[in-house]
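User: Predict the full complex structure for these chains.
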Amino acid sequence: MSNTIWVIVQQRQGKLHKMSIEAVRAGQLLASMVDGSVDAVLLGSQVGEAAEQLAGFQLGAVKVLDHASLGSFTPGAYTSSLQALAAETKPTFLVFPHTYQTVDYAPRLAQLLGGSLVPEVTGVEKDDTGLVWRRPVMSGKLEARVRTRGEGPVVVTVQSAAFPADEAATGQAPVETLTVDEGVIAEDRQILGVVEAAAGEVDLTQAELIVAVGRGVGDADKIGPVEDLAAALGAELGASRPVIDNGWLPRDRQIGSSGQTVSPKLYLAAGISGAIQHLVGMKGAQVIVAINKDRGAPIFNIAHYGIVGDLHEVVPALTAAVKEARGD
Amino acid sequence: MRIAVCIKQVPDSEARLRIAGDGKWIDEEDVQFVINESDEYALEEGLTLAEETGGEVVVFSLGPERVREALRKALALGAARAVLLSDEAFLGGDSLATGKALAAAIGKEEFDLVLTGSQSDDAGYGSTGSVIAGHLGWPHGWLVMGVEIDDDSSGAKVTREMEAGMNEVFHLALPAVLQIQAGLNKPRYASLKGIMQAKRKEIAQMGPGDLGLTPEEVGEGGSRLEVLSVALPETRGTAQIIEGEPAEAARILVDKLQKEARVL
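Assistant: Here is the predicted structure of the two-chain assembly.
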């Protein structure tokens, strides 16, 4: 039996989210494994430009549901629309980019459709028993291989950078208009506005050198030596989320998916284990140095240089070495 | 307001992880367990909202007997009582199975608000809260960074985290399920008085039968996901690990950053 794969792309104010194309790539890969056809499904209001962009990929069709009630995302409107559309077409797979928006409604959709849910997928392969999905567990320290069972569609959300957008096959896909019955779309929140999370002074996006500190520092009063290293290097000080959540540094120093995205020449991560939410904010750095006492910390997977050790010993030693090398 | 808070007990973030003999999960022996980080913030938010509105918090958890320790801590922090779903049948579930069981337990009482963390630091499905909402037929919100209850308690103004340092503000009707993100408040410490009082507070235990569910509908049996194995991630990295005492390693690293990488 041929499978229908829907890639539910994400747009905001008519612009495609960059991970939408990664989800298209994941859908295409899946289609090659399970003998299926891939359609992109685009929800929103006045999204013609995004639809045109999607039409440039190898897809069965770009299916567009354009409705004023879908202009601002609400989980209720998006799940009710997709539930109605899926009831008609019965897709076997629904592939979403794993974003702050899709995680707010894909799980509930899986439940409403009586399907299964595979969140945060980083890979997929096929063996004799069927599809095996890979996803991070233990905050990225381990990776699980999982499979789904039971009836209903399989809903997956694919993690950032797992399926490179530049590998998505291009083509010419027709754009089709979808409709749902009047009264189907059920908004469940009233959007009041968008505000800056941290109206701060610090712009790390232009910094050439960054020293970033993580949970491993242990306490606010132990950050001093890390600041000293940043000062010796002439670097900006950044931090991963736990440091900010604990109130050890202000939120405008946060680097990661919910903070700033940086791409310095040198990124030195001290006591940062490297959860994906942090990595997406700094993996564009030219040279990454990791200092962590756990050799298994995911930060070492993307680092160019590493020292396995206690940052409270290594960081002061680095400060001394930098001063020595610079003849201070 | 009557508020239910769901918490999960997970391995401490500093724990050395070893893979269990069957290769399907970690070996829990000698591992220190703590309340999941974002759940601690959910509990704090629940306690604060209950104090402001003159209500109470009932804390729920699903997991083995060791979870009593986490519930006892929540009671010491100020929760009125606790409900533990510790029956063997509940264990090993995905978020769909766990959410179904928790929704059934929560649904036996009247609540105005259910709070959970946004994501667990072990399985990390990030979806149990919205599954609970789906079963209860309530609206929900994920990655919540702020909650203001309307004066008449009929709704709430919610701040939700978006990407790239922005937050979205919206209003939803209560009852609802809110999945709290770490960092929106400052979790309190337990007082000695609280710890003493907690000893007299109730931890009710429930099995599938108490919730009108069969053992096959919950836990591993009711799961739509099967974990085949866990392993260290395939290391694609090519990091040069610099060995030696801190002072020596530091000198070598600085030298390499100057001469090899040319970034200093």
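The CA atoms of residues 154 and 174 of chain B lie 5 Å apart.
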